[in-house]
Write a structure and sequence with these properties.
10 strands; TIM Barrel; 14% strand
């Protein structure tokens, strides 16, 4: 039995008005037919789940589980809601697309709505017997990432203080319901690397519900050591997106991408196995730190069709799952404990 469960698939990139992607029952059957054992449901997708009803009704949650058949729900992903908890005014109009029409051009009401939706996802997760909610942090500071012009003293601390303040009521609900929030470390969010995660964690008073969603694709594009990250933050990693990426060194463009589309950027997301991520090391390291939740495919690729990516992803993840050893490889040469012999070997007798 592997320490990591899988394969599972994040459904957000596959939602469509046409079968089998148009409702939870159909897409669950589709996922099963490809070999997936779990599905991560986008909590904002109304075709799959009424998140407010799920937050208040355990019987409805039983219906949701029934629609999935014998495919397990791994998590309810709340990225779009989390994104709207904290939005810098420069991004108001582009992020308005994530909310209800009635809240557009009204940032305060949009933020209030997002907070209540996050609380609903937590309650719905508890009703479904789930313990982790993947999410985004939102951002106040992203436009200040590069230090030109020089940042005013104290502005980074002020940004994280206010970010944490907005999340505290949500974190309190998470704590009340025994649920952890796995923040995806992601460019565009104020939590985009290990240092920024630590800043946020500290600003929340090291809140017990603040955890990490690990996705190596976002680290390779930042030139980060994505294996070392696992060993540094292992006990805080509670969710795992399996997504590939490649970084092609260029004399014309770098990590910022020159405002180009995905095809032209030096850093590009790829289907599993088509990029540069060393997933043998990733799965080995995740197993080594004791990660025992789901390996969830998040398909994103500028080139390959989503259907092919999903088909290949199930077997790719399955092939990388590691069965935990039942005995040591050198058991055949092991010696029983003998105190006198040990002292003789050490030259003490």
């Amino acid at each position: 039995m592997s320490g990591i469960k899988g394969p599972a698939i994040f459904l957000a990139q596959f939602v469509d008005d046409n079968p089998p992607y148009n409702n939870l029952e159909n897409i669950s059957s589709w996922a099963k037919s490809l070999g997936y054992k779990g599905i991560q449901i986008p909590a904002s997708e109304k075709r799959f789940i009424d998140i407010d009803l799920a937050a208040s009704s355990k019987s409805y949650c039983e219906e949701i589980r029934g629609m999935c058949g014998d495919v397990e729900i791994t998590e309810l992903a709340s990225h779009l809601f989390g994104q709207l908890v904290a939005v810098h005014p420069a991004y108001d109009e582009v992020f308005d697309a994530f909310t209800e029409p009635v809240f557009r051009r009204n940032p305060k009401e949009r933020q209030r709505w997002a907070t209540e939706k996050m609380k609903a996802v937590i309650k719905a997760s508890a009703n479904l017997g789930l313990q982790v909610v993947p999410t985004f942090s939102g951002a106040f500071l992203w436009h200040l990432m590069y230090p030109w012009p020089p940042r005013p003293l104290g502005i980074v601390e002020e940004g994280f203080k206010n970010l944490a303040s907005l999340w505290q009521p949500i974190l309190q609900v998470a704590s009340d319901y025994g649920v952890e929030l796995a923040y995806e470390i992601h460019p565009g969010e104020d939590l985009h690397d290990g240092v920024t995660f630590e800043r946020f964690l500290e600003a929340t008073g090291n809140h017990q519900s603040v955890k990490i969603l690990y996705d190596p694709s976002h680290f390779i594009l930042q030139h980060m050591d994505y294996i070392q990250f696992i060993h540094i933050y292992g006990q805080l990693i509670k969710a795992f997106h399996v997504k590939d990426a490649e970084l092609r060194l260029s004399g014309k463009s770098g990590v910022y991408g020159g405002y180009q589309n995905w095809k032209e950027r030096p850093g590009r997301f790829r289907s599993l196995g088509d990029g540069d991520i060393n997933f043998k090391k990733v799965f080995s390291s995740m197993t080594e730190i004791g990660f025992s939740s789901w390996a969830v495919l998040e398909w994103e690729c500028f080139l390959k069709d989503s259907e092919q990516g999903a088909q290949e992803g199930a077997s790719f993840i399955s092939d990388h799952l590691i069965e935990l050893m039942k005995r040591s490889f050198d058991d055949f040469a092991a010696m029983d404990t003998d105190k006198k012999r040990n002292r003789r070997i050490l030259g003490l007798e």
